[in-house]
Amino acid sequence: MASRRPLRLLHTSDVHLGAYDTRTSDGVRRGELEDGFRRVIDLAIAERADVLLIAGDFFDNARVFEETLHFAADEIARFGCATVIGPGNHDHVGPGSVYDRVDLVERAPNLRILRTPDGERIAFPDLDLEVWGSSHTERRTNYQPFEGAPGRGEAAWQVGIGHGHFIGPNALLHHSFHIRADQLAATGLDYVALGHWERMTIVEAGEGVVAAYSGAPDALSGNREGHGGHVLVIDLCEDGSVRLEAVPVGEGPRILHADLPFLPAM
Q1: Would you identify the CATH topology of the domain 7-263?
Q2: What percent of the chain has pLDDT over 70?
Q3: Calpha distance 45→42 (Å, rounded)
Q4: Do 88 and 196 contact (CB within 8 A), yes or no?
Q5: Are 90 and 54 in contact (CB under 8 A)?
Q6: Is 154 helix (H, G, I), strand (E, B) or coil?
Q7: C-alpha distances out from residue 157 to 25, 54, 56, 122, 240, Å
Q8: Within 10 A of 58 (CB to CB), how many other CB atoms are there?
Q9: How far apart are CA 73 and CA 108, in angstroms?
């Protein structure tokens, strides 16, 4: 295989900005969530990431304060490099979408938002990269992020974004937004950035496809023991290999690919 241009991605999800945007809130948790995303951007800059991937639930709901939307866009603009948001169930596209309230791209020209429920591919020719993903709406109760996903595109590097529940051993099948290992394998993508879980986990995705949950920068559940607090730094290497490292958002150790938790399919 011909060598490819190496790239570095930074993957985060489930930031839930605005979860505490209420007039009665004391503002502490609101500030903590914002500080968490500010540190994500600090890491993206420090790690010299080429691309930032946000795999859903970036905003907690469509009623967040307008100043929260401005904060988010300004932080993405501060990063300055290509950023892709794949909306999740909390920040869905379609009628009433949070992404229709403010033109985030005007404030952050480096931002791209996946808006097509059946999936779309965004090309970054300068990086020889394409990013594919489908977007949540509130009108598809049986939505599966990778159902019917296409194969590889034309760029050397192929990346996906999806927000849902991976069906592994002992999975509770009543969970919505199923993601199956065979669906991930069929994409043929080099890396798939997943969201919906607070715990960072590599999941089974078939030969040649690496798929992982980044975990949340700050666990919205309040259970921070073993949850969240990391982003994933993904190196797409010249030889075609993919290497992951979990980097703490606050204090804590870095975790190499071989030591990340792994979940097989059913």
Answers
A1: Purple Acid Phosphatase; chain A, domain 2 (3.60.21)
A2: 94
A3: 5
A4: yes
A5: no
A6: coil
A7: 44, 18, 21, 12, 9
A8: 28
A9: 5
Q: Give strand pairing partners of 52.
A: 10, 83
User: Where exactly are the structural domains of the chain?
Assistant: 7-263
Overall size of the chain counted in residues: 266
CB–CB of 1/40 below 8 Å?
no
Say which residues have a Cβ less than 8 Å from residue 113's Cβ, sequence separation at least 6: 84, 85, 87, 99, 104, 105
Give the 3-state secondary structure of residue 85. Answer: strand
Q: What is the percentage of the chain residues whose pLDDT exceeds 90?
A: 82
CA dihedral (202, 58, 124, 100) in degrees, to 10, reads: 150
Decide: 38 and 44 in contact? Cβ < 8 Å. no
* Other beta carbons less than 10 A from residue 228's beta carbon: 27
Q: Outline where DSSP puts E strands in 55-197.
A: 82-85, 111-113, 120-124, 129-133, 157-163, 165-166, 178-179, 191-195
Confidence (pLDDT) at 54: 98
